[in-house]
Known about the structure:
Helix content: 40-55%
Bound molecules: nicotinamide-adenine-dinucleotide
Shape: globular
Strand order of the largest sheet: 9-8-7-6-10-11-12
Radius of gyration: 20 Å
Amino acid sequence: MAEILNPFQIAQKQLDNAAEKLGLDSATHEFLRWPMQELKVTLPVKMDDGTTRVFHAFRIQYNTARGPAKGGIRWHPDETIDTVRALAAWMTWKTSVVDIPLGGGKGGVVCNPKELTETEKERLARAYVRAVGRTLGVTKDVPAPDVYTTPQIMAWMMDEYETLTGEHHPGVITGKPIPLGGSQGRADATARGGIYVVQKASKVLNLDLKGSAMAIQGFGNAGQNAARIGEELLGMKLVAASDSKGGVYNPKGIDANALIDHKIRTGRVNGFPDAEAISNKDLLELEVSVLFPAALENVITRENVSRIRCKILCELANGPTTPSADDILYEKGVFVLPDFLANAGGVTVSYLEQVQNTYNLYWNLTEIHFRLKETMHRAFDRVYEMSQNNRIHMRNAAYLVSVARVAEACKLRGWT
Ligand code: NAD
């Protein structure tokens, strides 16, 4: 049978497994299989040369039983309604697994931002908010950055929303630049949260990570910060990193900050001195202590899973592992930190950003790091306990914890 690679079908299958193990009633199960609300819009946007291009875009509120929808906006040429649905579902489980009072949502624009100028990006960002703004709001749905969207894009979107409503609403979007109400610590929160749970995993596995190797696929926001913080907090050694144009490898170690500087200067990791080239495929198969997939979905599949040789797989990307690969990783003894736990640091600090916006009172970095660490460690402990008690892998355990909470909220509201 062909492997399922449609991310939404994967998300539904993962939920089905959890529903069965939890003994969910059929109405709640069916309700949680689908987004509560979807909006598809078509955006005509003026290009710098005077022509008009038409972009297709989406915003989905998957589930709002535990609070307003929360989730990023991705700009990517391969975006589809099903990718957005899957990401929105995973956001629902993510806010639940870290137990913050939010639901799940997601947005996307089908576009290649690398082909757009800054002024074109600004017009696209504003057009998006004009089209979907009626479904957004601090009490309804709060977007954030995702792949190829930035704090600057969040700033334009917030400004457009405030122009539409005629009021200040900094909490309508998170991941903003700090002078516009962004939070300290948001920029590296996803990676930092991932490192906090790697730290916990190494303790339960009795694994000394100091000086051990890490490899990172996807050297963007999540990947670069994981390299830097993995070095800083855990004393790990970066041996390989890649982006969409290829990768670099040096078993003796690559200085994370130097590689980040090189990527910022040249736009790619390729060409970094003192490292050889490595393909994205080979990078995943390196023998390392921690492998961080930090790019896109479906990179660890039935096809390559037998060659995966890391001890801990920390999924900073959403959906990097297919369900059939998951079971094999478990049998092989790879400790998987599943995406919606491993990368929940971003939404956790986004939540802290919203809280600060609401109070109009801002915390320092120490306060943010303390709250983030406490949240991630608590979530890890709960999921690990579930996995041990039921002898199941960490993804299934994370699903049981988070789906049970969302199902309970739906029931308490009288929805199902
Ligand atoms: P980003 O745009 O900053 O970086 C993405 C990186 O992936 C880029 O370096 C790009 O070159 C690389 N890439 C793209 N296609 C690739 C390919 N085929 N092979 C290898 N590399 C490729 O995005 P990001 O914010 O770092 O997000 C990365 C992943 O982390 C996504 O799955 C995203 O959903 C997830 N995530 C991000 C956040 C966040 O706060 N940034 C939060 C949660 C989850």
